[in-house]
Amino acid sequence: MIDIRQVRKDSDAVKRALARRGIDPSEVDRLVELDRRARAATGTRDELRSSVKALSRQVGEARRAGQTEEAQALSERSRALGDEERTAHLLADEARDVVRRTLLYLPNLPAGDAPDGRGPEDNVITRTWPDSPPSYSASQRVPHWEIGIALGLLDMERGAKLSGSMFPLYRGFGARLLRALTTFALDRHATAFEEIRPPSLVLTDTMVSTGHLPKFEEEAYHLERDDLWAIPTAEVPLTSMWRGDILDESELPVRLMAATACFRRESGAAGRDTRGLLRVHEFDKVELFAYVTPDQAPEVLHELVDRAESLLRELGLQYRVLDLCAGDMGNAAARTFDLEVYAPGADQWLEVSSVSWCSDYQARRANIRYRPASGSGPVFVHTLNGSALAWARIWAALVETGRRADGSVELPEALAPYLRGETVIPVPQGAVRREER
RNA sequence: GGAGGGAUGCGAGAGUGGCCGAAUCGGACGGUCUCGAAAACCGUUGUGCCCCCUGGGUACCGUGGGUUCGAAUCCCACUCCCUCCGCCA
After folding, report:
1. In 3-state terms, what secondary structure has residue A290?
2. Cα dihedral across residues A38, A39, A40, A41: positive or negative
3. I want to staple A230 with a disulfide (CB 3.0 to 4.6 A). Which of A37, A263, A298, A313 is the partner?
4. What is the rounded CA–CA span in Å between residue A200 and residue A178?
5. For residue A89, which nucleotide's C1' is closest to its Cα?
6. Which nucleotides on strand B sit less than 7 A from a protein beta carbon?
C-alpha cells in the first residue's frame, strides 16, 4: 500500500500520481478525512487509557496506605472512565480499520518515468528482437493446438475431462519439453539467485501482502474449508518469506527464484483467447524475485528484464519489450516491462514475462524492512519480480516457430542438454500428414 | 487426530497483578585507549500515534475476547512453534 504519511503531507502529488491510473482524486480526499478521524479517535482513546491508568495507580497507593474509602472512590471514578474507554477503543479500531481497508484497495503510485496512458494500446514498444522481423514459412503458420494433437504433445480434451476447460494436459515429448524449459531457466539464473520451492497454497495474509487480495479475490482459487489460496505466481510466497522481518542492509539485495505452478481463474476473460495454451487456469513458471534497497532497484529491474530477454534469445523466439503505461500496470507495480513473443501459428503476440518494480508498496503491506548501514531507523525494502519465463505460452511459440515442412518440430540447441540431446519432436509413425495451408 | 510445553525488544532470555516499555547477556553503533586493530571500559540502540515538537505524552510483550480500579503477568478462543503418541506419501 501507499504511505499514509505521504497522503497526509502531500495529497496533491498523490492525487496526480493516482489520476494517471484512473483513480478519482476525491478518493484521496476521502482517505485524508478518514485518516484525520482515525487519528482523533486514537487520541481520545489514548487519553482515556492514560487517565484510567493514573487513577488505578492511585487506587493501589491508597490501598497500601490503608485509605480504604479513598481507594473505593478512586476505583469508582476509574471504572466509569473505563466504560468510556471501551467505547472509544471500539470507535478507534473501527476508524483505523476503515483507513487500512481503503489503503489496501488503492494501487501503487506509478514511477515518474512510466509512460502515460489508459490501457494496453498506450504501452510503448521499447525494442524488438531480432532487429528485422523474420519471415515465416507456411509450415510455421500452424497453431500449436493443432501441432499438439498431431504430434501427441498436448491433450486439451483430456485436460478438460479432468479439471474443466483451460486446464492443459501435456503428453510425452510435450511434457518433457515443459520440464526441460524449467530446468534450463533455473540453470541460467543459478549463479545469482537462490532456488526456492515454496508451498503452492498460502494464507490470506500472504495474498494480501503482494496486493492480490482483497481487491482481486475473484481472480484466485480459494480452498474455503482450509481458507487457503492457490498461488497465482511464485511472487506471492516469495514476497512473504521475510514478512514482518527486519533485514540488515548488508544482506541486500536478496535474490530468489522459484519454479511453481501458477493458478488463475481468469474470471473476467471468459471466451477470450480460449484456444490451446493462449490463456489457461494452470501453468508452470520460473519467477525471479528480489528484495533491494531503493538505490539498488533501478539496476536490478533492468537485470531482471535482461535475464528474461536472454532466455528468449537463446530460445530463438521473436520478441518485443513493452514499457507499460501507468493505466495498464498491475496494482502493486510502479514500473513494469512486459515481454511478448510472437507465435507465428496463432499469429499473436503472447505475454510471457512481466517484470515489475513494486517500490515499497508490497513491503509496506508485508512489513518488510531493512536496517540501513548508516544506523538510522528501519526503512521498507523495495521488491521486484519478473517471470523468466511463463512456459505455457513459450511452449506454444516454440512449437509453432520450430515446425518444419514435414510436420516435425525442431527445438533450439540450448535445450539439448535438457532433452537428452533430442532436439527434434518427430511425427509419430502412421500419423496422417496435415494438409499445408 | 490425541497429550503436554511454549510465543517477550535486532538475537538469546528473565519477568506470575500496580514500583515493567520491560532485568541480564549477546549483536550493532558511538566514545575512551592505540600508530592501527584486538581486548578492556563508558555510552547509545524497538515501533506507531498525539502535542504547546532541541522536548513531552501515550499505546503496543503472538492474535482476538474476558476478569479487574489496574494485565506481559489471571481466564477463554484462535494461530503458529516444540516434544511425545497415532495416521500417512
Report:
1. strand
2. positive
3. A263
4. 18
5. B59
6. 10, 18-19, 28-29, 46-50, 57-60, 65-66, 68-70
ipTM for the assembly: 0.81
The C1' atom of B72 and the CA atom of A78 lie apart, in whole Å, by 22
- H-type alpha helices, A284-390: 297-314, 361-366
> What is the distance in angstroms measured between the alpha-carbon CA of A204 and the sugar C1' of B23?
38
Write out residues whose CB is closer than 7 A to strand B: A 4-5, 39, 42-43, 46, 49-50, 52-57, 59-60, 63, 75, 78-79, 82, 86, 93, 246, 375, 377-378
Taking the CA of residue A286 and the C1' sugar atom of nucleotide B1, their distance in angstroms comes to: 37
Integer CA distances (angstroms), A185 to A147, A174, A284, A390, in order: 24, 17, 12, 10
Rounded Cα distance, A435 and A213, in Å: 48
Q: For A120-425, which CATH class?
A: alpha beta
The pLDDT tens digits along chain A (437 residues) read 898 888 888 889 999 999 999 999 999 999 998 888 888 888 888 888 888 888 888 888 888 888 888 888 888 888 888 888 888 888 888 888 888 888 888 999 999 999 999 999 999 999 999 999 999 999 999 999 999 999 999 999 999 999 999 999 999 999 999 999 999 999 999 999 999 998 898 888 888 889 898 888 889 998 887 788 899 999 999 988 888 777 778 788 889 999 999 999 988 666 677 789 999 999 999 999 999 988 899 999 999 999 999 999 999 999 999 999 999 999 999 999 999 999 999 999 999 999 999 999 998 888 888 877 776 677 888 999 999 999 999 999 999 999 999 999 999 999 999 999 999 999 998 765 554 44
**Can you give the distance from the CA of residue A371 to the C1' of nucleotide B48 in angstroms?**
18
Spatial contact of A110 and A21, defined as CB atoms under 8 Å apart: yes
Annotated domain spans of chain A:
4-105, 120-425
A196 CA, B11 C1': Å apart: 25
